[in-house]
Amino acid sequence: MKNNPETAYVLVVDDEEGIRSGSERILIRMGLKVLTAARGKEALDIVEKEDVSIVLLDLKMPGLDGMQVLKRIKETNLNILVIVITGYATVETAIEAMKQGAYDFIAKPFEPDQLRIVVNRAREKIKLTYEAESLELERKRTLADLGTEKSRVRTIIESLPNGIVVTNSLGQVALMNPALLRYIGIDPSCRPTGEHIGHYVKDEGFCRLVMEISQGKHLDAGDVPAYEFSPVEGKFLMARGKPVLGDENECLGAVVAVEDITALKVLDRLKSEFVAKVSHELRSPLSTIHEQIAVVLKDMAGEESNDEKLILARAKEKTSGLISLIGDLLDLSRIEAGAVYHEPKLVDIDVLLKNIVDFLGTRAKNRQQTLVLELPDYPLPSLTTDPMALESIFGNLITNAINYTQKGGSIIVTAWLAENNLIVKVKDNGLGIEQAYIDKIFDKFFRVKNEKTRLITGTGLGLPIVKGLLNDLGGSVSVESAPDRGSVFTVSIPVKKQGSSPKI
What we know:
Beta-Lactamase, alpha/beta, Rossmann fold, disordered C terminus, single chain, Heat Shock Protein 90, 45% helix, 13 helices
């Protein structure tokens, strides 16, 4: 870019030596770089070779006159500002020169301040022009860079094996890659036209996820919402998304990645089937071994040594633990296979809870614990469901309370109806759970291991089974706990409204 005001020259063109030298001195004191010429031809040679930004041009010179030089300069570089110097002509002549491209004029004789004013005015214009050109050049460069980057990002997104959709804050599609189009049954050659996400994907849950993210409902860094859906029979997709944020942290839209999890679903089903089959095959022989050991222990009646009795007792305990593990695995496989409602029946909750507490009461009594069931003074509603599911939920929670409560402790089971939900609370004053483990206790095979719990036997599947069964029932489970202060597990199961609810 030429005519940089910091490096360019001011050219003084005049056949009078006094005008040239006087102007040069004034301009140098102004901090300008100055060149001089006595003839028009000399001036044009300088303009061609040097970076000249301002020309002070006398109109009356021998050879090429000022008007001719002005015309040639403008043909060479339109950005050069020409200030004509006239000492003979009228104002009309100066105006004519300005019509031919001159920037300004100054009449001879002129005062130093007059020269300074007109040159400073020209300098300011050149500076503004230069800055504008610099900004425009930077804008074009930035646009080119953005275009390149946009093209690169688009190429990457379109080549990804997973589906990607980008929306604005209104849920309108800005980008949707071919993988996602294939997932939802649209020709991959089709390009989104800015329609709402619901125009392309008919799943309400997926569209709701996209809209929530687009409108800034999941701004926390750790909040990555997910949604599983099936656009066509036999295909399963998992969607996860994050908001697109602006410079001021405002939500501009959403980017949602969609992964095909069909193969994982198949593997998960096969795993569940395998676990169920193996567990079923192991359960029968283990039960037989357990019963035989019990018979042997009963018949020994002092004939064998204490060591032998201890070995057999441990064997009986271990087979009992294996049978429990196999039972849990079978329950878990039923949940994962969606077989919770395999045999739905009308279940009397009052009777079911009493039977469970009575059955587990012996275990609590052997540990010198108190197990109490507190029911309201009105009958609890019956549920049409798989009774084995409810037995597994409440049985696991009460068994855990017994196992993790010291001798002499107490477990209280309370049940009531609240806003068409059956609420069952299992409270103990046992070992409790550290806050860091609260979110992990529902993970498969997770067990809190410390000095106080290391001798407690368990499979680590009880609470995952509880949560899985409740999810299938449309219910939920929450926990409040603190070390050495006990735990409270609260189960909520929706109940269909039948008449008016009793006041509690």
